[in-house]
Amino acid sequence: MSGTYLGMPAFPKAAKESTKDATLRANLGHATRTIREKRARAVAELDDWDELRAAGREIKDRTLRRLDAYLLQAEQAVTAAGGTVHWAADAAEANRIVADLVKAAGEHEVVKVKSMATQEIGLNEALAAEGITAYETDLAELIVQLGDDLPSHILVPAIHRNRTEIRDIFREAMGRWGRPAPEGLTDAPGDLAEAARLHLREKFLRAKVGVSGANFLVAETGTLVVVESEGNGRMCLTLPETLISVVGIEKVIPTWQDLEVFLQLLPRSSTAERMNPYTSMWTGLGPSKGADGDGPTSFHLVLLDNGRTATLADRVGRQALRCIRCSACLNVCPVYERAGGHAYGSPYPGPIGAILTPQLRGLGTELDASLPFASTLCGACYEVCPVAIDIPEVLVHLREQAVDQGPGHRVEKAVMKAATWLLDHPAALAAAERAASATRGLHLRKLPLPGPAKAWTDTRDLPELPAEPFRDWWAEHRDRKDGTP
């Protein structure tokens, strides 16, 4: 699957195709099962997990209530530490800021840390339009980029690929992006990792501009935090002369003490580790940075709104902004496991994507209006969420909005209106039941309805009607002498 998310079909259409892919389902099933089993063991090690979860929720909610104040505090702290803060109202503004900063540095390429925010705004494509090449350095993001693909998971973007597919991608595409894959490359994990290391190392050593996101932004000091498992992030954050970080405004937390909670919640809930192998923190240029020290000589923080303020205004939906991008909800979701991430048409797939994307982008398209319905409402996502986002509650809330606002539910509204009238008129209901029973031999298994209703009827068979309505059967049998029907 290549191209961009724009113009993708609604979830039911995309999922109908993706669930036919046996290889995809096998890859997803194996990967998600492995991750969720490891996560369950890691979480079980902590007796106070429920208390940590409650603390994470409280910190996020408290921050969101005073988000404006904490953002201004963070801006002041970053600026005082030698950084420059930029405010971006939407994706277009954020992309323009980053492109201008790269051009101002006199460069035409950047190395990137894995970042959901830059995926969200389509930064790579925007930079390419300006003649700037963005190189993904996370192993899974590299696989996606070399394969002209799209990410399908928040934590493991190439979860839909197996080792043999990755080997073939490396062999075919690495040479076009830089150092070719070694001769005779196998699909052994160690060989694939070594091929990626050799390919990326020349980019790390050459690049003058790095682009990152951030897992957290500590307001009291202006410190940004990136947690990762491979070390590529550390290279991107320290080697380039210019560092640009694109960060959603909801990533701010008030204090270092608050950070302590999330550095326990995030690794166990995402990678099933007690602690991330690499936790990088930087504050502006820092005391050791600049011309006489290590690290970038120029730091820019781009604070991204892009629908977050509108989401914050929704008392029910705003809890989606608590998300710390751990992906635990994806790994337990039966819908995601079968449909895959691409079907969601967004960098945010799975349950969290089904509630976050429609709020960031609105419900104005068929795709976005369909996402709140991409769930069984089983509640498994809520049970594993480390910050207790009640995803089923938000899904139902957004479904109500989609029905009220979306043009695709007119047929459903008409059917409900007709059913209401029929149920209010017992004589008409009885006549309809008798007519339905009398003609049951002529009934179709599926209703051939057009338009939006077709998505509903295509996946459901009509129930087989009895030979006579219950009311007629009751009238015939209720006068038995023993008093039983």
What would you note in describing this structure?
With about 475 residues, this protein is an alpha/beta fold. The protein has helices at about 10-20, 20-45, 50-65, 65-80, 90-105, 115-120, 125-130, 140-145, 165-175, 190-205, 230-240, 255-270, 310, 330, 335-340, 350-360, 365-370, 380-385, 390-405, 410-425, 425-440, 450-455, 470-475, and strands at about 85-90, 110, 135, 210, 215-220, 225-230, 240-250, 250-255, 280-285, 300-305. The strands form 2 sheets. It has a 6-stranded parallel β-sheet, sandwiched between helices. The longest helix has 23 residues, at about 20-45. The termini are far apart.
Rg over CA atoms = 26 Å
Globally, the shape reads globular
Quantity of strands, as a count: 10
Biggest sheet, spatial arrangement of strands: 1-10-7-4-2-3
Mean pLDDT: 91
Strand content: 5-15%
Find the structural class using helix and strand composition: alpha/beta
Q: How far do the termini sit from each other?
A: 61 Å
The main pleated sheet reads as: 6 strands, parallel
What proportion of the residues is helical, as a percent range? 40-55%
Q: Count of DSSP helices?
A: 23
Q: Which ranges are low-confidence, i.e. pLDDT below 50, for 5 or more consecutive residues?
A: none
Features:
four-stranded mixed beta sheet, 485 residues, six-stranded parallel beta sheet, globular, 51% helix, alpha/beta
Helices and strands in order:
Elements: H1 11-18, H2 22-44, H3 49-65, H4 67-80, E1 84-88, H5 91-104, E2 109-112, H6 116-121, H7 123-129, E3 133-136, H8 139-146, H9 163-177, H10 189-206, E4 209-212, E5 216-218, E6 223-228, H11 232-238, E7 242-248, E8 252-253, H12 256-270, E9 278-283, E10 298-304, H13 308-312, H14 328-332, H15 334-339, H16 350-361, H17 366-370, H18 380-384, H19 391-405, H20 410-423, H21 426-438, H22 452-457, H23 470-477
Parallel strand pairs: 1-10, 2-3, 2-4, 4-7, 5-8, 7-10
Antiparallel strand pairs: 5-6, 6-9
Helix pairs in contact: 3-12, 9-10, 16-19
